[in-house]
Amino acid sequence: MPMQPTSIYDSAQLVPHALQELKEAVRYRHLLYQLVRRDILTRYKRSFLGVAWTMLSPLGMMLVLSFVFSNLFGATRGFPAYILSGLMAWNFFSQSTTGAMSSLVWGGGLLQRIYLPRASFGLSAIGSGIINLVLSFVPLVIVMVATGTPIRITAAFIPISLLVLACFTLGLGLAISTLAVYFPDVAEMYQIILTAWMYLTPIIYPETVLPAKYQLFLHLNPMYYLVKLWRLPLYDGRWPTWGEFWPAALISIVMLLVGWFFFTSKSDEFSYRV
Amino acid sequence: MNFPTESEAKSIMQEAQIIYPEHIIHLEDVSVRYRVPTERIGTFKEYMIRRLKRQVQMRTFWALKDININVSRGEIFGFVGDNGAGKSTLLKVVARVLRPTKGRVIVRGRVAPLLELGAGFHPELTGKENIFLNGSLLGFSNREMLDKYHQIVDFSEIGEFINAPIRTYSSGMYARLGFAVATSSNPEVLIIDEILGVGDENFQKKCAVRINDFCRRGTSILLVSHSMDTIQSMCQRAAWLDHGIIKAIGEPAQVIRAYREKER
After folding, report:
1. Which terminus of chain A faces fewer neighbouring Cβ atoms within 10 Å, N or C?
2. pTM, whole model, 2 decimals?
């Protein structure tokens, strides 16, 4: 039996990198599934409560924050539900971007030995993030019921909010993981930026507490639009207006394109960087 | 018996070229240049300052220089040379890990790298979970791995430990499982970098049998070894690499002789 070559690799083929990487990532979709599975399985493997921590940790954080800030912002209707809904979106964003960065570093050794689509690591970080996000709907529903926050049909908009948020997260995750390959300091720096960024975004406080002069800064923060698009259908229980939707969608598409092109233009050099 | 006419023969040959392309691996003027900063610049700030002052000094060196090699179907090709001669870089170029700085690489078919057995195993996952993870790293789907699963477990002799976390494995078990997964497919190209000293004598024999099977079925093998006996006994052709340049290529015995003469 003659063996049919399964694929022909020709280093001289001039395919645009960004497009080729996309094709390869699709071809290696099973790897994506396995990487997400590995993330989920190993994260809590040695802990007693296991995957339950995915639900318990945002719940715990929400309890602490709403206890600490209830005197300040307690007037907000269903304050714990307000915090938790924002925290979900934020945790997805911060964990996935950090995960994209650290898994590329983890995979760095692997990239030296075997061919893999380099974007697999970033994509799998988003995949794990989505699984965790979906699981954290369980505590959210409980908290919403407990605080008397109505769950409306507008929650059906959430998949679209998630898509917009995930595109932005992937784009930024790929961009900073590219930087982190060249400058390891970026990984540490990013953690500080994330902390500051979180407090600059209305997550644990309602946006109305900001004085009018700072409202401008709010509109310069991409996460403001994305968290809002997430929270509107879920917590506020109303459909986002067109004016609330398009800035978020535009920001995330631009970020995705910038991140993907930046990443793929450098990804061939990754294995040269030891 | 009828002999084909000249034009018939030509078309048969052309067909054969498509089905059995002569060379599975084709390296054409392949060069790889590494750029190494003369001093390590680890921080972003430092980099930007130096960049502005145009002080980023890069030392460049050629790990491979104008390499031309063709490897045929079913051929075992060996590489000898000192450490840092460019052998591993060459394997990386074939394995698609490094894109050559100059030149062209064509590899027809799937490459199974045996560079370091068990690279990509996760210690907390069980042997079974790692089989599927490792298979996906090699580009196989879950279903394909399911078909191979029992054969992999049998070959690796892991037995009931297959459901235990891999951190509990001995180094021999680890390597055996790595070998079994990497060779579970029918790759067109197998890359072996100094790993034949795996496991006990019994397992080594099994490995040798499997490698011979591959060759019979038409797998081309690239072999790097510091053991001249291995190169001599296994390879049909060999090349001696020195500082990224091919110093000798051809009969293993002659290449080894040339390499040893230089040593003296």
Report:
1. N
2. 0.84
Please give the Cα distance from A121 to A104 (Å, whole number).
6
C-alpha distance from residue A174 to each of A96, A138, A185, B199, B243 (Å): 10, 29, 16, 40, 36
Q: Report the pLDDT averaged over residues A152-179.
A: 94
8 Å CB contact between A113 and B115: yes
Between CA A135 and CA B124 the distance in angstroms is 22
A110/B92 Cβ within 8 A: no
Question: What is the Cα–Cα distance from A225 to A245, expressed in whole angstroms?
Answer: 8
Interchain contact, A113 vs B133, CB within 8 Å: no
Task: Please state the rounded mean pLDDT for residues B62-86.
Answer: 88
What does the DSSP 8-state code read for residue A233?
A: I
Arithmetic mean of pLDDT, A180-202: 90
- pLDDT at res. A91: 93
Percent helix, strand, coil in chain B, to 5, is 40, 25, 30
| Interatomic CA distance for residues A82 and A74, integer angstroms | 11
The first and second tokens of residue A41, run together, are 């399985």
Query: Would you say B98 and B71 are in contact if contact means Cβ atoms under 8 Å apart?
Result: no
Helix axes A29-43, A119-135, angle to 10 degrees: 50
Q: Identify the closest residue of chain B to A271 by CA–CA distance.
A: B98
pLDDT at B5: 67
B142 neighbourhood in chain A, CB within 8 Å: 30, 33-34
Query: Is a pLDDT exceeding 90 seen at residue B7?
Result: no
Q: Which amino acid is at A182?
A: Y
Q: What is the ipTM of this complex?
A: 0.79
Angle at B88 between CA B90 and CA A182, to 5 degrees: 95
Average pLDDT over all residues of chain A:
86
**B232 and B252 in contact (C-beta within 8 Å)?**
yes
